[in-house]
Amino acid sequence: MFTLTEVASLNDVQPNYRILKPWWDVFMDYIGVIMLMLAIFSGTMQLSKDQVACLPILEESTNCNFTPPPKGDDMGSQQTGRKTNLDFQQYVFVNQMCYHEALPWYNKYFPYLALIHTILLMVSSNFWFKYPKTSSKIEHFVSILGRCFESPWTTKALSETACEDSEEKQRFTGGVVFQKHVSSEDSSQSTPLIETPTVQFPTEKLIAEAPSLTTLDKKDGEQAKALFEKVRKFRVHVEDSDFIYKLYVAQTAIKALKIVLILSYTSTFASEISFCHKCQVEIESLTGYNQFCCTHNMAFMLRKLVFTFMALICLYGLLCLYKLYWLFRRPLKEYSFEKVREESSFSDIPDVKNDFAFLLHMVDQYDQLYSKRFGVFLSEVSENKLREISLNHEWTFEKLRQHVNSNAQDEQELHLFMLSGLPNAVFDLTDLEVLKLELIPEVRISAKVSQMTNLRELHLYHCPAKVEQTAFTFLRDHLRCLHIKFTDVAEIPPWIYMLRSLKELNLIGNLSSEHNKMIGLESLRDLRHLRTLYLKSNLNKIPNNLTELSPHLTKLMIHNDGTKLTVLNSLKKITSLVDLELQNCDLERIPHAIFSLANLQELDLKNNNIRTIEEIISFQHLRRLMCLKLWYNKITAIPPSIGLVKSLESLIICQNKLETLPPALFNLPKLRHIDLSHNFISSIPVEVGFLQNLQHFAITENKVEVLPNQLFKCSKLKVLCVGHNRITSVPEAIGQLVQLSHLELKGNCLDCLPFQLGQCRLLQRNLLFVEDHLFDTLPLEVKESISSD
Hints:
Layout: H1 4-10, H2 23-49, E1 52-56, H3 88-101, H4 105-125, H5 127-130, H6 132-150, H7 152-181, H8 197-203, H9 211-214, H10 218-238, H11 243-270, E2 276-280, H12 284-287, E3 291-296, H13 299-329, E4 334-335, H14 338-343, E5 352-353, H15 354-366, H16 368-376, H17 380-394, H18 397-402, E6 404-406, E7 412-417, E8 434-438, E9 443-445, E10 457-461, E11 465-467, H19 469-478, E12 481-485, E13 504-508, H20 516-519, E14 532-537, E15 555-560, E16 579-583, E17 602-604, E18 627-629, E19 650-652, E20 673-675, E21 696-698, E22 719-721, E23 742-744, E24 768-769, H21 772-775, H22 780-787
Parallel strand pairs: 7-8, 8-10, 9-11, 10-12, 12-13, 13-14, 14-15, 15-16, 16-17, 17-18, 18-19, 19-20, 20-21, 21-22, 22-23, 23-24
Antiparallel strand pairs: 1-3, 2-3, 4-5, 6-7
Helix pairs in contact: 2-4, 2-13, 4-11, 6-10, 7-8, 10-17, 11-13, 15-16
């Protein structure tokens, strides 16, 4: 006998697993319990009442059928039957013999077969829960699903989504009406983004501002954040196989085959169940008879139980067929959250596949709300919202205040690096002037930025930023300098091209020619106050659209990564340029387009491949050119035509291959700054004395052996750098440089220093670069005067 506890344990599935048991599996479990009870009942009846009663068949009788007496006969007056002369023990013996010999085996073993079949069906129904390769995954899935369902974050996110949807409809409707009445004078007033403005802004509403989410408890937020990580790892682990699905299909197919087998043999043997059986045993020597007529007293009940069992098996089989139909009718190896995406703002919920998809399909049979709430944890939007809340708990106003520093320009600057988002408390730093954001994947600028009335400079390094309409209006009117560093042009926020008060724009990233059309530079014409444009990229031509900035652009800096800049004709049209930098552009000559820039004052051609500068004669037409930087090239000679550039005040031509200097170089009356360092120059022409306005002269790392006395006639000289040459002595005339404050002599072949250095009243020890043993050769009073403050 089985106790009720033992019977219940056969179908004991953990309560948490009920979400993975669809209605047909639950129905099968109930049928299994009924079949189990039927088997136990029939087995109990058989153990207590199953027996046969046999009587001998007389020789003149050919069968064991009972024939009733004729009607009208008086049973009391007519004797029927015949005395057999058998005692009780012989009848008991015959009953036992005939039970084993004449009774069909199915009559005797049906209860046990029914019990075995039922147990096998019940075990196979729950086998996929208990199999070693599936149990851990299923248990982990159920645990995660339960925690996701019960998480306060899920409830808040879904409720916030419902509120957003209703508000978004209202905003969208209002936005459309507003667009009909907007004037054509300044469309940027109502279009914060260049593309589809009426749609972009409502979808970029900052969720972190919603009060229902900001009130999320910090502990709940941390728990939800940890849960996000578990869900992500579990998805990666489960989506790589479909073993659970295959196991479920296999056990269903096996049960269907088993039912076919049970029905086939049960229907065959059920017809053999009868009340009367003829028994023929060779025991005539013991009883005097060898044929007996036996009755099976369980036949009637057994027949009813067999047909009941067959009916249950048929119903069980129909459920198996329906299960197979469900398994093969729809693609269970892929699960789409299409309905969830339609009903919420979580439009980025990814579709899942394989075992993960199958488990979610099973959950849907229990309650689709589980899948909907679970979809929240698969959405990056949801995760980003949660990160915002966790970020705001961690980065308080006090903590951010500690990270504010004064930069070189004495401006209040905040640099945030590798955060999950932008803390809301940043917008409370009203005195902040420079905000640097680096490697922050989700930057959302809310309307609270309007509190930062001192904000003038913004850096977005690999930080795709989205702004609200009110925030954009503030940035459009107040932002003066913007730095954007990106990997792909898609990361450039389109709203930056409408910041009409912007004066300086820096774009650092891939802007190669095949992507030029994607940059949207044609919209730069709306940057009415833009003065400085810095492009650090891999351009092979200057975009034609830059000419639209010609009326107001004064400084253009193009720093290539070594890509050859071949097309520069567009430069001719930017006639307002005052400062031009073309660095690392693989230029071999000075571009002719530069000579058309009549307003140019400073030209920087650093780190190119320039070998000759014969075109420098054309610089005489640039009457405002004051600074020429040709450093880090391969120039071997300076042509005498350099003397025609009368307006030149600064010449930096260091890090080249110069060997000589033309005397015409020193006929430039306005020249104040010369840097000839890191060349192969062996001598300084005596014409250097003509530079009466010279204040900075550097010829470090050359092959100079002698300093001419004419050099010290440059009475305005403040900086003299002649270190790392072959100079053997310093002329006493150095004392004439009364304004000298910076002197570099280190790395030469000097034996001593002239005491006339003491006449250079502005020279201090910290700006005198010379070996200590040479400094010690100076008289004591000279050393004291140089060392004094």
